[in-house]
Amino acid sequence: MSENLGITISNHFLLNQQLSPGATGSFTRLLQSLVLACKIIQKDVGKAGLVDVLGRAGKVNVQGEEVQKMDELANLTIKRRLSVSGEVCALVSEEEADIIEVPRQYPTGNYVVHYDPLDGSSNIDANVSIGTIFSIYRRVTPSNSDTNDKDALQPGLKQVGAGYVIYGSSCVLVFSTGQGVNGFTLDPSIGEFLLSHPNIRVPRRGKIYSINEGNYSYWDEGTRRYIDWLKHGYEDHKIHYSSRYIGSLVADFHRNLLYGGLFLYPADLKDPLKPQGKLRLMCEANPLAYLIEQAGGVATTGQNRILEIEPNYIHQRVPLIIGSPDDVAIYQDFINGRR
């Protein structure tokens, strides 16, 4: 067992800061603010059935989706904690239409954070695992100017950190700052995240595929043939795959990151308003692509590397194929007609 197993997340941040030449501590303070926000959300999620935070809020978000009460609460929590941190110049939330400027009464910093405050929130009433996803960029405009699209619309390759927190049977935070992927589990008795999954590496090939098969008739031919191949076990198919689809992106991704396999949300023709897929590039696909690549995996649209996509607007959607490198490669063979 690693001698670092059980180290607190605060000590982990401080150790990384000491190993980074020229570090000022601002990035560490930003991460600590994110951790605090997620602890607050975990507390609220844990008592969701006991107070009036279950169900719909009676409005739709910028994506045209019904807003859950916990969505609003989680969004407000993250926005408040990061705004007062003094380390961000702007925020971008899945729940809000425009870039969120830091209120003028607070100092600003040099980071932009994209976040999905509560991924999978439609599953809250059924007590299914949900999560927070975040992505961090350095601003590229001068610090004495207003933030704009140049700061908010950077390709995923420019991320300086990304991660997610999954609120389930335990509360787990998984993140990377470019030196591998580590997971921390919240110990509620002391209120601290402790290192529980050091140096996560996704298996080169798994035995799980995760996709909403209810959309089968709307997929492209290559995707349909790939899923048929997984299910029917042809002669060149030596691994028996199991279908596991929770419908909560962060939960499906977390399982496959640990066990190996493939998560797919391809483009489909079911919704003419979403011809490029359902998932958001900036607050979902980019941070998870950053994590999977740091863990040795691959993330693609089926044709292009996710992290190389030049974003056009903050709520842009993309297809997402992500997971074990050998599984992604086989899928791309089907898409490109090589199988």
Topology:
Blueprint (H helix, E strand, L loop, with lengths): L8 H10 L7 H21 L9 E5 L5 E3 H15 L4 E6 L6 E2 L9 E9 L10 E9 L10 H4 L6 E9 L3 E6 L5 E6 L4 E6 L10 E3 L10 H12 L9 E2 L5 H11 L2 E4 L13 E2 H14 L3 E3 L16 E2 L1 E4 L1 H11 L4
Helix pairs in contact: 2-3, 5-8
Shape: globular
**CATH fold descriptor of the largest domain:** Fructose-1,6-Bisphosphatase, Chain A, domain 1
SSE succession: HHEEHEEEEHEEEEEHEHEEHEEEH
Total strands: the figure is 17
Distance from first to last alpha carbon: 43 Å
Write down the CATH class of the largest domain.
Alpha Beta
Number of helices: 8
Helix content: 25-40%
Described by strand count, sense and barrel closure, the largest sheet is: 8 strands, mixed
Per CATH, the superfamily of the largest domain is Fructose-1,6-Bisphosphatase, subunit A, domain 1
Number of domains: 2
Low-confidence segments, ≥5 residues, pLDDT <50? 53-58
As laid out across the biggest beta sheet, the strand order is 4-3-5-6-7-8-9-10
What does this structure look like?
The chain is α+β, with helices and mostly antiparallel strands and 339 residues long. The chain has two domains: 9-197, Fructose-1,6-Bisphosphatase, Chain A, domain 1 (2-Layer Sandwich), CATH 3.30.540; 208-335, D-Maltodextrin-Binding Protein, domain 2 (3-Layer(aba) Sandwich), CATH 3.40.190. 29% of the residues lie in helices and 24% in strands. Strands 4-3-5-6-7-8-9-10 form an eight-stranded mixed beta sheet, with helices on both faces. Strand 9 and strand 10 form a beta hairpin. The protein is globular. Mean pLDDT is 87; it is low at 53-58.
